[in-house]
Design a protein that fits this description.
CATH superfamily: P-loop containing nucleotide triphosphate hydrolases
Number of domains: 1
Number of strands: 5
Shape: globular
Radius of gyration: 17 Å
Mean pLDDT: 86
Order of helices and strands: EHEHHEHEHHHEH
CATH topology: Rossmann fold
């Protein structure tokens, strides 16, 4: 009898953390190691922010973009549902304590269940000093992300969505993304 190795079950990783914590960097490291598809929050946000000229003199308040971003998110989730059942995905988000963000996590769990994927919630943190030091990096400006440490300081005072019981907690204050990915993937093995 010939044995065949089965592919690992697909996963839906949810990387949650403040701006500059390293969500996209860790997501790309997971992608490199597992082949998972990265669905960065800026895939949704920038589809709205870029045409509106946000950060370039556009006078649109963030909350005024909510409806448009929700429509883009619906399309992204629909496309994820339609993807091959063998594919894994890495979603990134910064989720403040809010009923809408609780609902968003529920939607992602439902999506994973419908796809037969295992949900892997990862709650990322870093010290305020580390976030402040990272937020002004050149690579962030290229991706139309928050780059002003002064603007970052106010949101950091707001409470984040509490980590679910099944979350993997990663402190990235001094941990390199490759090391964090190794810790995460070893934990899941």
């Amino acid at each position: 009898m010939t044995g065949t190795a089965s592919a690992p079950a697909p996963r839906l990783y949810l990387l949650q953390g403040a701006p500059a914590v390293g969500k996209l960097t860790l997501a790309r490291e997971i992608e490199r190691r597992t082949g998972a598809i990265v669905v960065d929050n800026h895939l949704v946000n920038n589809a709205v922010f870029v045409p509106l000229g946000m950060g370039r003199g556009g006078e649109v308040a963030l909350e005024d973009t909510d409806a448009l971003r929700a429509r883009v998110l619906d399309v992204v989730l629909e496309a994820t549902l339609a993807a091959s059942a063998s594919l894994s995905h890495v979603f990134t988000n910064w989720l403040l304590e809010d009923p809408g963000n609780h609902a968003h996590v529920g939607r992602l769990r439902d999506l994973a269940a419908r796809r037969g994927a295992r949900v892997v919630p990862v709650w990322m943190s870093a010290s305020a000093e580390a976030l402040t030091a990272r937020v002004a990096s050149a690579g962030r400006a290229e991706r139309s992300t928050l780059v002003d440490p002064v603007i970052l300081s106010e949101p950091l005072t707001r409470p984040e969505l509490p980590a679910p019981q099944d979350a993997v907690l990663l402190d990235l204050s001094t941990t390199a993304p490759s090391e964090a990915a190794e810790q995460l993937l070893t934990h899941l093995a």
